[in-house]
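Problem: given the chain below (296 residues), write out its structure.
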Amino acid sequence: MIRSMTAFASRTGAHGGTQWSWDIRSVNARGLDLRLRLPDGIEGLEQSVRASLTKRFSRGNITLNLRLTRDETDKKLDVDTAALDRALEAIGRIEARAAAMGLQVNTPTSAEILNIKGVFVPTNLTEDDEGLLKHLTDDFGPLLDDFAAMRATEGRALHAVVTDHLNRIEELIEKAKITAEERKADVRTALTSAMKRVLDDIAEVDDQRLAQELAVLAVKQDVTEELDRLRAHVAAARELISDPAPAGRKLDFLAQEFNREANTLCSKSQAVALTAVGLELKAVIEQMREQIQNVE
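Solution.
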C-alpha cells in the first residue's frame, strides 16, 4: 500500500526538571530533505534523529522541531574560561591599538564582559540530565510511529483516489477502442468524397485505388499499440500502488508515459469523437499525476 508524504505528529515528555515537545511534519519533495531544529548541547541527538528518519522514510521534505524548557530552580550559571580569555585578549588588543592611534577607549566593566556572547553560559544540567539523550531518543520512536501511521492513513486515501482514476482511464481506453472502430466508416466516406473532388472528371472512384489509400490511412491512424500500452500502464500502476515499497518515483515516471500515449492517440485520431476521448483521457491522467506527487 502506498504512503503519503504529507503528515504531521507531535509529542511531549519530561525528565527531571526538563520538559520537551516534539513536532514533525512533511510535504512532498523529489527526495528526502531533512530540516532539523534541535537545541544545542545534547551530544549525539542530531546523529541519532537523522539516522532514524533516514532509515524509515525515503522521500519528503521533513521538518522536525524539538523544544526544551527547564525549571528555573534548576538553572545555574558558569563562566567559560576559554571564552573569557579570548574576550580579554581581544579587549587588550583593542586598547593597545587605540593608544597607538592616540585614542582613548573606556575599559569595559566586568558585567559588560560577562555579556559578551559565550562568556557567561547557563549550565542548567542536573544530575538526572546525564540520561536526557536516552529519554529523548526513547520518546522519539513513538513520535515516528505516529508520524508513519499518519502517512499510511493518508496513503490509503491516495490509494482510493488513484484507483478511481485508473478505473476511469480503463473505461476511456475501451471507449477509445470502440470510437476508433466506428471511425473507419467515416474515414472511408471522407476519403471517397475527397478523391471525387480532386478527380472531378472521374464519375466513380476506383475501388482498388480507394482500398490502397484506406490501407495507408489505416496504418497512419491505427491506435491499437497506444491503447495496448495504456492498458499495460494501468496494470503496472495497480501493481505499484499495492506494493508496500516506496513507489512515488516509479508512479511519477509512469504518469509521464500515460500522457505520452494519450498525446499520440490525439495526434492520430483524425476524428472529433476520438479526439474528445483522448482529451478526456489526458485530463484524467493529469488529475492522477497531481495525486501521485504526494506518494512516497
